[in-house]
């Protein structure tokens, strides 16, 4: 029951986007809209995956972390496909030129490559081998945050609030790691 409910909850941004794009048809710039909804959904879900260990005393959903992380990857994949298929129209020259000319794009590509590695190695068998490398999620989230900030023409109060939450989560995770290390020694 919990898994099904979580599955549906994580699908809400996707279903909402489909509803807005194809039923209501009230989106003026579909490519920008898909960038926004997929980028924010991916970022929020991926940050939530690292937050799970901080809240496990109150909500023990640790066994769903892989599924949640794969949803974060799903939205990142939509974000990437929006760039390559809809925006760049599969023009490889354009994709390489944009990636090299705009730093926020190569930061996003770097983060996406890390997420691909993590998604591929998230099976039980491969995770046992590559678990230490899954700490790369922190690097990916830093790259995603910088990608997000650089992609904005100007920052609104809401975006600044969003960045403050990202910094707070990062601080709490760092504090958790320091406390854990001090207990071991």
Automatic annotation (TrEMBL):
It comes from the Bacteria. Keywords: Iron, Membrane, Transmembrane, Transmembrane helix, Transport. GO terms for cellular component: plasma membrane. Residues 61-144 form the Ferric oxidoreductase domain. The keyword Transmembrane helix applies. Its main location: membrane. One of its GO terms (molecular function) is oxidoreductase activity, acting on diphenols and related substances as donors. It is a multi-pass membrane protein. It is found in: Membrane. The chain crosses the membrane at residues 33-55, 67-84, 104-121, 133-151, 157-175. Pfam families: Ferric_reduct. PANTHER family: PROTEIN-METHIONINE-SULFOXIDE REDUCTASE HEME-BINDING SUBUNIT MSRQ. This is Ferric reductase. It comes from Halarcobacter bivalviorum. The lineage of its organism: Bacteria, Pseudomonadati, Campylobacterota, Epsilonproteobacteria, Campylobacterales.
């Amino acid at each position: 029951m919990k898994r099904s409910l979580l599955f549906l909850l994580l699908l809400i941004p996707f279903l909402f986007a489909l509803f807005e794009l194809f039923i209501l048809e009230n989106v003026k710039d579909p490519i920008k809209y898909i960038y926004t909804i997929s980028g924010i959904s991916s970022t929020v879900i991926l940050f939530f995956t690292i937050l799970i260990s901080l809240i496990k005393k109150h909500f023990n959903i640790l066994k769903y972390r892989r599924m949640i992380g794969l949803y974060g990857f799903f939205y990142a994949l939509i974000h990437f496909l929006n760039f390559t298929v809809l925006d760049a129209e599969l023009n490889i020259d354009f994709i390489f030129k944009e990636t090299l000319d705009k730093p926020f794009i190569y930061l996003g590509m770097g983060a996406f490559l890390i997420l691909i590695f993590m998604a591929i190695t998230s099976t039980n068998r491969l995770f046992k081998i590559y678990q230490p490398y899954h700490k790369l999620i922190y690097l990916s989230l830093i790259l995603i945050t910088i990608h997000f900030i650089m992609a904005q023409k100007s920052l609104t109060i809401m975006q600044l609030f969003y960045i403050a939450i990202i910094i707070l989560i990062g601080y709490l995770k760092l504090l958790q790691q320091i406390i854990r290390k001090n207990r071991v020694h």
